[in-house]
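pls design
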Protein backbone atom coordinates (compact mmCIF):
# COMPACT_ATOMS: atom_id res chain seq x y z
CA UNK A 1 0.00 0.00 0.00
CA UNK A 2 1.38 3.39 -0.94
CA UNK A 3 0.80 6.69 0.82
CA UNK A 4 0.49 10.18 -0.59
CA UNK A 5 4.28 10.68 -0.81
CA UNK A 6 5.07 7.69 -3.03
CA UNK A 7 7.03 5.83 -0.31
CA UNK A 8 6.03 2.36 0.73
CA UNK A 9 4.57 2.40 4.21
CA UNK A 10 6.29 0.11 6.73
CA UNK A 11 4.08 -2.92 7.42
CA UNK A 12 3.78 -2.27 11.16
CA UNK A 13 0.86 -3.34 13.37
CA UNK A 14 -0.65 -0.42 15.27
CA UNK A 15 -0.18 -2.17 18.56
CA UNK A 16 3.29 -3.48 17.79
CA UNK A 17 2.26 -7.11 18.29
CA UNK A 18 0.29 -9.92 16.71
CA UNK A 19 -2.21 -11.74 18.87
CA UNK A 20 -4.35 -14.81 18.20
CA UNK A 21 -3.12 -15.13 14.61
CA UNK A 22 -4.87 -11.91 13.58
CA UNK A 23 -2.85 -8.84 12.81
CA UNK A 24 -3.68 -5.60 14.62
CA UNK A 25 -4.66 -2.69 12.38
CA UNK A 26 -1.68 -1.31 10.47
CA UNK A 27 -0.19 1.74 12.10
CA UNK A 28 -0.77 4.02 9.11
CA UNK A 29 -4.36 2.87 8.75
CA UNK A 30 -4.94 3.71 12.40
CA UNK A 31 -3.32 7.13 12.00
CA UNK A 32 -5.65 7.83 9.07
CA UNK A 33 -8.65 6.70 11.06
CA UNK A 34 -7.87 8.99 14.00
CA UNK A 35 -7.08 11.95 11.72
CA UNK A 36 -10.40 11.56 9.92
CA UNK A 37 -12.30 11.04 13.15
CA UNK A 38 -10.92 14.37 14.34
CA UNK A 39 -11.79 16.01 10.99
CA UNK A 40 -8.26 16.88 9.91
CA UNK A 41 -7.98 17.90 6.25
CA UNK A 42 -6.61 15.52 3.61
CA UNK A 43 -3.63 17.83 3.15
CA UNK A 44 -2.76 17.58 6.84
CA UNK A 45 -3.26 13.82 6.65
CA UNK A 46 -0.77 13.49 3.80
CA UNK A 47 1.77 15.72 5.55
CA UNK A 48 1.51 13.93 8.92
CA UNK A 49 1.78 10.49 7.32
CA UNK A 50 4.84 11.66 5.41
CA UNK A 51 6.65 12.78 8.58
CA UNK A 52 5.69 9.65 10.51
CA UNK A 53 6.89 7.49 7.61
CA UNK A 54 10.20 9.39 7.48
CA UNK A 55 10.67 9.07 11.25
CA UNK A 56 10.18 5.29 11.07
CA UNK A 57 12.52 4.91 8.08
CA UNK A 58 15.29 6.94 9.73
CA UNK A 59 15.07 4.69 12.81
CA UNK A 60 15.46 1.40 10.96
CA UNK A 61 11.71 0.76 10.62
CA UNK A 62 11.32 0.24 14.33
CA UNK A 63 7.79 0.58 15.69
CA UNK A 64 7.25 4.03 17.28
CA UNK A 65 6.00 2.30 20.43
CA UNK A 66 9.53 0.96 20.97
CA UNK A 67 10.93 4.50 20.69
CA UNK A 68 10.30 7.70 22.58
CA UNK A 69 11.41 11.23 23.36
CA UNK A 70 15.10 10.49 22.74
CA UNK A 71 14.49 9.32 19.16
CA UNK A 72 12.09 12.19 18.50
CA UNK A 73 14.65 14.71 19.83
CA UNK A 74 17.39 13.24 17.64
CA UNK A 75 15.15 13.26 14.57
CA UNK A 76 14.03 16.89 15.03
CA UNK A 77 17.59 18.04 15.78
CA UNK A 78 18.88 16.36 12.62
CA UNK A 79 16.26 18.24 10.59
CA UNK A 80 17.58 21.56 11.92
CA UNK A 81 21.34 20.80 11.95
CA UNK A 82 21.82 18.50 8.97
CA UNK A 83 18.71 19.23 6.94
CA UNK A 84 18.79 22.98 7.73
CA UNK A 85 15.00 23.11 7.41
CA UNK A 86 12.91 26.16 8.20
CA UNK A 87 11.43 26.53 11.69
CA UNK A 88 7.93 25.98 10.29
CA UNK A 89 9.03 22.67 8.73
CA UNK A 90 10.52 21.45 12.01
CA UNK A 91 7.37 22.46 13.89
CA UNK A 92 5.29 20.58 11.34
CA UNK A 93 7.31 17.42 11.93
CA UNK A 94 6.98 17.88 15.70
CA UNK A 95 3.20 18.26 15.42
CA UNK A 96 2.95 15.07 13.37
CA UNK A 97 4.97 13.03 15.87
CA UNK A 98 3.15 14.45 18.89
CA UNK A 99 -0.14 13.51 17.20
CA UNK A 100 1.14 9.98 16.60
CA UNK A 101 2.19 9.42 20.19
CA UNK A 102 -0.61 11.26 22.01
CA UNK A 103 -3.66 10.59 19.83
CA UNK A 104 -2.84 7.23 18.22
CA UNK A 105 -0.49 5.37 20.57
CA UNK A 106 -1.82 7.09 23.72
CA UNK A 107 1.72 7.78 24.95
CA UNK A 108 2.58 11.10 26.57
CA UNK A 109 6.08 12.23 25.62
CA UNK A 110 8.02 14.31 28.16
CA UNK A 111 8.88 17.84 27.04
CA UNK A 112 11.93 17.60 24.80
CA UNK A 113 14.32 20.31 25.98
CA UNK A 114 17.28 18.84 24.11
CA UNK A 115 15.94 19.64 20.63
CA UNK A 116 18.05 22.06 18.60
CA UNK A 117 15.45 24.46 17.23
CA UNK A 118 15.57 25.73 13.66
CA UNK A 119 15.92 29.50 13.55
CA UNK A 120 12.82 31.41 12.53
CA UNK A 121 14.00 34.25 10.27
CA UNK A 122 12.04 37.47 10.17
CA UNK A 123 11.05 37.90 6.55
CA UNK A 124 8.94 40.54 4.89
CA UNK A 125 6.24 39.32 2.48
CA UNK A 126 6.67 39.69 -1.26
CA UNK A 127 4.28 42.36 -2.54
CA UNK A 128 3.45 43.32 -6.12
CA UNK A 129 2.85 46.92 -7.11
CA UNK A 130 -0.51 47.81 -8.60
CA UNK A 131 1.00 47.94 -12.09
CA UNK A 132 2.62 44.54 -11.60
CA UNK A 133 -0.72 43.06 -10.56
CA UNK A 134 -2.34 44.46 -13.70
CA UNK A 135 0.51 43.16 -15.88
CA UNK A 136 0.09 39.74 -14.30
CA UNK A 137 -3.69 39.58 -14.71
CA UNK A 138 -3.45 40.61 -18.37
CA UNK A 139 -1.47 37.42 -19.00
CA UNK A 140 -4.24 35.22 -17.59
CA UNK A 141 -7.65 34.25 -18.87
CA UNK A 142 -10.54 31.97 -17.98
CA UNK A 143 -10.64 30.43 -14.53
CA UNK A 144 -7.01 31.25 -13.61
CA UNK A 145 -7.74 34.93 -14.32
CA UNK A 146 -10.90 34.91 -12.22
CA UNK A 147 -9.27 33.04 -9.34
CA UNK A 148 -6.22 35.32 -9.25
CA UNK A 149 -8.45 38.40 -9.53
CA UNK A 150 -10.52 37.10 -6.62
CA UNK A 151 -7.43 36.40 -4.51
CA UNK A 152 -6.15 39.94 -5.08
CA UNK A 153 -9.55 41.61 -4.82
CA UNK A 154 -10.66 39.89 -1.61
CA UNK A 155 -7.51 38.89 0.29
CA UNK A 156 -8.66 35.26 0.49
CA UNK A 157 -6.19 32.47 1.12
CA UNK A 158 -5.81 30.06 -1.79
CA UNK A 159 -7.81 27.18 -0.29
CA UNK A 160 -10.47 29.55 1.06
CA UNK A 161 -11.00 30.67 -2.53
CA UNK A 162 -11.01 27.19 -4.06
CA UNK A 163 -13.37 25.83 -1.37
CA UNK A 164 -15.83 28.70 -1.73
CA UNK A 165 -19.45 27.47 -1.77
CA UNK A 166 -22.21 29.01 -3.87
CA UNK A 167 -24.29 29.89 -0.79
CA UNK A 168 -21.44 31.99 0.65
CA UNK A 169 -21.29 34.50 -2.20
CA UNK A 170 -23.75 37.36 -1.61
CA UNK A 171 -24.12 39.26 -4.87
CA UNK A 172 -26.68 41.67 -3.36
CA UNK A 173 -24.43 42.81 -0.52
CA UNK A 174 -21.18 42.46 -2.50
CA UNK A 175 -19.57 40.29 0.13
CA UNK A 176 -18.11 36.81 0.55
CA UNK A 177 -18.41 34.76 3.72
CA UNK A 178 -15.42 32.56 4.54
CA UNK A 179 -16.51 29.49 6.48
CA UNK A 180 -14.16 27.60 8.78
CA UNK A 181 -11.10 29.63 7.81
CA UNK A 182 -7.72 29.37 9.47
CA UNK A 183 -8.24 28.71 13.17
CA UNK A 184 -11.79 27.47 12.48
CA UNK A 185 -13.16 31.03 12.24
CA UNK A 186 -15.80 32.51 9.94
CA UNK A 187 -15.39 36.01 8.52
CA UNK A 188 -16.65 38.26 5.75
CA UNK A 189 -14.69 40.07 3.07
CA UNK A 190 -15.53 42.35 0.16
CA UNK A 191 -16.65 41.08 -3.26
CA UNK A 192 -15.22 43.46 -5.91
CA UNK A 193 -17.94 44.86 -8.17
CA UNK A 194 -15.69 44.24 -11.17
CA UNK A 195 -15.91 40.49 -10.51
CA UNK A 196 -19.68 40.22 -10.03
CA UNK A 197 -20.50 39.44 -13.68
CA UNK A 198 -17.70 36.90 -14.29
CA UNK A 199 -18.44 35.25 -10.94
CA UNK A 200 -22.15 34.98 -11.82
CA UNK A 201 -21.14 33.22 -15.05
CA UNK A 202 -18.96 30.84 -13.05
CA UNK A 203 -21.87 30.05 -10.74
CA UNK A 204 -24.07 29.25 -13.76
CA UNK A 205 -21.35 26.99 -15.10
CA UNK A 206 -21.27 25.19 -11.76
CA UNK A 207 -25.08 24.91 -11.87
CA UNK A 208 -24.95 23.19 -15.27
CA UNK A 209 -22.30 20.71 -14.10
CA UNK A 210 -24.30 19.97 -10.96
CA UNK A 211 -27.50 19.39 -12.95
CA UNK A 212 -25.65 16.92 -15.20
CA UNK A 213 -24.27 15.08 -12.15
CA UNK A 214 -27.75 14.84 -10.62
CA UNK A 215 -29.10 13.32 -13.83
CA UNK A 216 -26.46 10.60 -13.50
CA UNK A 217 -27.55 9.88 -9.93
CA UNK A 218 -24.56 11.69 -8.42
CA UNK A 219 -24.17 15.36 -7.50
CA UNK A 220 -23.13 14.98 -3.85
CA UNK A 221 -20.35 17.25 -2.58
CA UNK A 222 -18.14 16.70 0.46
CA UNK A 223 -19.54 18.45 3.53
CA UNK A 224 -17.44 19.39 6.57
CA UNK A 225 -17.66 17.32 9.74
CA UNK A 226 -21.06 15.75 10.46
CA UNK A 227 -23.21 18.06 8.34
CA UNK A 228 -23.92 15.27 5.85
CA UNK A 229 -25.55 13.24 8.65
CA UNK A 230 -27.29 16.22 10.23
CA UNK A 231 -28.66 17.48 6.90
CA UNK A 232 -28.87 14.39 4.67
CA UNK A 233 -30.09 16.31 1.61
CA UNK A 234 -27.62 19.19 1.85
CA UNK A 235 -24.82 17.45 -0.03
CA UNK A 236 -26.90 17.52 -3.23
CA UNK A 237 -28.27 21.03 -2.81
CA UNK A 238 -26.81 23.55 -5.24
CA UNK A 239 -26.00 26.09 -2.52
CA UNK A 240 -23.43 23.71 -1.02
CA UNK A 241 -21.62 23.10 -4.33
CA UNK A 242 -18.22 24.63 -5.00
CA UNK A 243 -18.18 27.85 -7.01
CA UNK A 244 -15.10 26.48 -8.80
CA UNK A 245 -15.82 22.76 -9.30
CA UNK A 246 -13.33 20.41 -10.91
CA UNK A 247 -14.06 19.58 -14.55
CA UNK A 248 -13.85 15.87 -13.64
CA UNK A 249 -15.33 13.78 -10.85
CA UNK A 250 -13.07 11.68 -8.64
CA UNK A 251 -13.33 9.12 -5.85
CA UNK A 252 -13.02 10.67 -2.39
CA UNK A 253 -10.38 8.68 -0.46
CA UNK A 254 -12.17 9.37 2.83
CA UNK A 255 -15.22 7.23 1.98
CA UNK A 256 -14.68 6.00 -1.62
CA UNK A 257 -17.68 7.98 -2.91
CA UNK A 258 -17.47 9.53 -6.38
CA UNK A 259 -17.83 13.29 -6.11
CA UNK A 260 -16.86 16.50 -7.88
CA UNK A 261 -14.01 18.15 -5.99
CA UNK A 262 -12.96 21.80 -6.34
CA UNK A 263 -10.57 23.21 -8.94
CA UNK A 264 -6.99 21.92 -8.62
CA UNK A 265 -4.59 24.32 -6.92
CA UNK A 266 -1.67 22.86 -8.89
CA UNK A 267 -3.27 23.93 -12.16
CA UNK A 268 -3.62 27.48 -10.83
CA UNK A 269 0.00 27.55 -9.58
CA UNK A 270 1.31 26.52 -13.00
CA UNK A 271 -0.81 29.14 -14.77
CA UNK A 272 0.39 31.81 -12.31
CA UNK A 273 4.04 30.90 -12.79
CA UNK A 274 3.70 31.00 -16.57
CA UNK A 275 1.91 34.36 -16.42
CA UNK A 276 4.70 35.86 -14.28
CA UNK A 277 7.27 34.79 -16.85
CA UNK A 278 5.31 36.35 -19.71
CA UNK A 279 4.76 39.55 -17.70
CA UNK A 280 8.48 39.84 -16.95
CA UNK A 281 7.94 39.79 -13.17
CA UNK A 282 11.13 38.56 -11.48
CA UNK A 283 9.79 38.57 -7.91
CA UNK A 284 8.92 35.13 -6.46
CA UNK A 285 5.14 35.06 -6.86
CA UNK A 286 2.62 32.57 -5.48
CA UNK A 287 -1.11 32.74 -4.89
CA UNK A 288 -0.37 34.05 -1.38
CA UNK A 289 1.53 36.99 -2.88
CA UNK A 290 -1.81 38.30 -4.16
CA UNK A 291 -3.18 38.22 -0.58
CA UNK A 292 -0.11 40.14 0.62
CA UNK A 293 -0.63 42.68 -2.18
CA UNK A 294 -4.32 43.10 -1.25
CA UNK A 295 -3.42 43.90 2.37
CA UNK A 296 -0.64 46.33 1.47
CA UNK A 297 -2.70 48.19 -1.12
CA UNK A 298 -5.66 48.45 1.30
CA UNK A 299 -3.43 50.10 3.92
CA UNK A 300 -1.91 52.36 1.25
CA UNK A 301 -5.44 53.44 0.34
CA UNK A 302 -5.96 54.65 3.91
CA UNK A 303 -8.08 51.84 5.36
CA UNK A 304 -7.76 51.32 9.10
CA UNK A 305 -5.46 48.46 10.04
CA UNK A 306 -8.20 46.90 12.20
CA UNK A 307 -10.47 46.77 9.16
CA UNK A 308 -7.75 45.07 7.13
CA UNK A 309 -7.16 42.66 10.02
CA UNK A 310 -10.82 41.62 9.97
CA UNK A 311 -10.87 41.18 6.20
CA UNK A 312 -7.76 38.99 6.34
CA UNK A 313 -8.92 36.99 9.36
CA UNK A 314 -5.80 37.61 11.42
CA UNK A 315 -6.11 36.70 15.09
CA UNK A 316 -3.55 39.31 16.19
CA UNK A 317 -3.24 42.80 14.73
CA UNK A 318 0.54 42.40 15.01
CA UNK A 319 0.34 39.96 12.09
CA UNK A 320 -1.38 42.61 9.99
CA UNK A 321 1.10 45.31 11.00
CA UNK A 322 3.85 43.64 8.98
CA UNK A 323 2.25 45.17 5.89
CA UNK A 324 3.00 48.66 7.17
CA UNK A 325 6.68 47.83 6.58
CA UNK A 326 6.24 47.10 2.88
CA UNK A 327 4.33 50.22 1.79
CA UNK A 328 5.55 51.94 -1.36
CA UNK A 329 7.08 54.86 0.53
CA UNK A 330 10.52 53.31 0.93
CA UNK A 331 11.98 51.30 3.79
CA UNK A 332 10.10 51.97 7.03
CA UNK A 333 7.89 54.53 5.26
CA UNK A 334 10.64 57.20 5.25
CA UNK A 335 11.63 59.47 2.37
CA UNK A 336 15.28 59.43 1.31
CA UNK A 337 17.07 62.81 1.66
CA UNK A 338 18.03 62.45 -2.00
CA UNK A 339 14.34 62.77 -2.90
CA UNK A 340 13.71 65.91 -0.84
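designed seq:
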Amino acid sequence: MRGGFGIREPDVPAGGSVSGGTRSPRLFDEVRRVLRTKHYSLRTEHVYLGWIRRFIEVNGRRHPRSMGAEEVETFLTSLAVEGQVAASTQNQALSALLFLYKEVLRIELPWMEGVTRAKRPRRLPTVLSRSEVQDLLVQLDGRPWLLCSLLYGTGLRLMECLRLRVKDVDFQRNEITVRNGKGGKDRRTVLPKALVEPLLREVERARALHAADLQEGLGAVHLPHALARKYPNAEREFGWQYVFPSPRRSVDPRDNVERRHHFDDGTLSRALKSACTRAGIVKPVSAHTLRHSFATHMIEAGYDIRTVQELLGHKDVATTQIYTHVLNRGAGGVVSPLDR
